[in-house]
Design a protein that fits this description.
This protein has 142 residues and is of the alpha+beta class. The chain contains four helices and nine strands, in the order H-H-H-E-E-E-H-E-E-E-E-E-E.
């Protein structure tokens, strides 16, 4: 079944630009439910930093959570991430990752998490956002 969208020239939304006659109804619906557009000023509010994992351990009493100690350029942080079903603690050691550094701290299973590690995917396997070359911990991602 084909989906057709009639749009006045120059008035389409980003979601409508994604939708095409060859997309299924389900794919078109997903495109329409996309997260709202933000401004560059909104994006600039995020403090994304490169971090290096210096220690990792599973969180007791859960199959999904892992506690990471990360180096953010001389500042150590604790981060709880739902990655324990995808990665072992040993696999995480020395990885360079991207951290949302200015996220409000949250208590997760009694551990204060000081940021969020970025990852991609709703399905398994989850993909961690990493770097393609060595960058010093603490480097701002832009």
């Amino acid at each position: 079944e084909r989906v057709e969208i009639a749009v006045a020239e120059g008035t389409e939304t980003p979601a409508e630009r994604v939708a095409s006659p060859t997309l299924s109804k389900e794919a078109t619906q997903v495109a329409r439910e996309a997260v709202p557009t933000i401004t560059i000023e909104d994006f600039a509010k995020l403090d994304l930093r490169v971090v290096r994992v210096i220690s990792a351990e599973r969180v007791h009493g859960t199959d999904k959570l892992m506690k990471l100690e990360v180096d953010m350029g001389g500042e150590k942080r604790t981060v709880v991430a739902a990655i324990a079903q995808e990665f072992t603690p040993d696999e995480m050691i020395d990885k360079l990752l991207v951290l949302v550094a200015n996220l409000a701290p949250a208590r997760i299973r009694g551990i204060v998490s000081q940021g969020m590690i970025l990852a991609a995917g709703d399905e398994k396997p989850l993909a961690l956002v990493t770097l393609d070359r060595e960058v010093p911990p603490g480097t701002k991602v832009r």
